[in-house]
Design a protein that fits this description.
Layout: H1 2-100, H2 105-120, E1 128-132, H3 133-146, E2 150-154, E3 161-165, E4 170-174, H4 175-187
Parallel strand pairs: 1-2
Antiparallel strand pairs: 1-3, 3-4
Length: about 190
């Protein structure tokens, strides 16, 4: 019986060892499964995070492009509207200045303009004054009596005023030039 007892004890010992080894294997397999799952989950998370970041970057880039495009179009529209307003204003002012040249007070303006322009020429030689055809026809005799310079005709697009030319200088005191200079100052 002693042998049977020993066999039984050996069998129980083997079963215990097998049970301990089974538990140890189960724990090891469970740890391996958990590690593999954690690794796969980390890889999956990193991949999804990378995809999310790339998608976010692309969306931000597209958004910024759209904003830039919209701002550019708005600036173009504003510049176009400003140009139209400037052109309309210029046309209206030219019309008003043209009307002014038909008034009696324009005569004094023109004569003062010619007088100050000649004074600004500081004794230049070969001085000639250009005035519009309309002004030349209207004031030629009176101008020649008052000023000792040659008068010649300039295009009516200058509206009124005068242009002084000499060998040394060129002075543009036309209404059109004054308007252009004022509009240029306003733009700056």
């Amino acid at each position: 019986m002693n042998l049977e007892k020993k066999l039984k004890e050996f069998e129980e010992s083997c079963l215990r060892l097998a049970s301990i080894e089974t538990e140890s294997l189960k724990a090891e397999i469970q740890n391996e499964i958990e590690d593999q799952m954690k690794k796969e989950l980390d890889e999956y998370t990193q991949k999804k995070e990378w995809n999310f970041n790339k998608t976010t970057e692309k969306l931000e880039k597209d958004y910024m492009k759209e904003i830039f495009s919209f701002q550019t179009e708005c600036k173009k529209d504003i510049l176009k509207a400003k140009q139209e307003i400037d052109n309309d204003l210029r046309k209206k002012v030219i019309d008003l200045l043209s009307e002014y040249t038909n008034r009696d007070e324009y005569r004094n303006f023109l004569f003062n303009c010619i007088d100050s322009t000649i004074k600004n020429s500081k004794g230049s030689s070969n001085v000639s004054i250009g005035i519009t055809q309309k002004d030349l026809e209207k004031f030629e005799n009176e101008l020649k009596k008052r000023f000792n310079v040659d008068f010649n005709e300039i295009n009516n697009c200058y509206i009124g005023g005068c242009i002084l030319k000499s060998n040394e200088i060129y002075i543009d005191n036309t209404l059109l030039n004054s308007l252009e200079e004022k509009m240029k100052e306003e733009r700056e």
